[in-house]
Each structure stands twice: as structure tokens, then as C-alpha cells.
Amino acid sequence: MICTGINFSEHGCSLKLKPKDEETDSKIRKFRDDIASSCGLHFPNHETYQFHISLAYLREKLNIEEKIEQREMKRKIENYIKENFSTVELAQPQLTFFDTMFEFRLKR
Fold it and tell me: Residue 44 to residues 31, 36, 41, 47: CA-CA distances in angstroms?
């Protein structure tokens, strides 16, 4: 995957990713389609889903000063990404189970 930047939203912070080529994009989208089909889950944004790696979740709304600081942080992080790395290698996807975001298990 290619890291294309960082996203800050009202929900949190994530690295934006895109597949490195059409073949990878096709494989990933087929994998998502197969999971959606077998689980009966098809969300409205299924076709336009932005691949990402979540880094942080916001639990409270930011005030004006924090939003300004967030914009500056985004600029610094995007510059760091451009200068130091752009490709992210991911392992084969695995089905995992979790009760909280602190632990992911392979078995229930």
C-alpha cells in the first residue's frame, strides 16, 4: 500500500492508504466483496471505501486552539511521511475477534 497522507476528522486520526497498483486494488476489493457477501454486510460506502490505518480516536470535540494545533501537526506528519516513507507492507489479512481495541484474538 502507498501512504498518501494523514486524515484528521471528528472521529480521529488515520493514515490514508491506496493500493500500489491495479492488481493489488482488485485483490483487496474482491476480498472486501467476499467478506461483505458472506457476512451479509454491505455499507453505503462499500464502493468508495478509503483504505486506512487508524492511529487515534477522538473522545472529545476539539476547541479552536486544538484545531489549529492539529492542522500544524498534520502538516508536519505529512512532510515526515513524504521524506521518510511512503510504502506500507501489510501481512495477509486474518479474521480476528475483539471486545476492546486493546486486544485482537484469532479465536473466540
Answer: 17, 12, 10, 8
Task: Judge contact between 96 and 106, C-beta under 8 A.
Answer: yes
Report pTM: 0.73
In sequence order, the 6+-apart residues with CB closer than 8 A to the CB of 108 are: 97
Provide Rg for the chain, Cα atoms.
Answer: 16
Q: Cβ distance 98 to 105 under 8 Å?
A: yes
DSSP letter for 46, please.
T
pLDDT of 55-99, one tens digit each?
Answer: 889 999 999 999 999 999 999 988 998 888 778 888 888 888 989
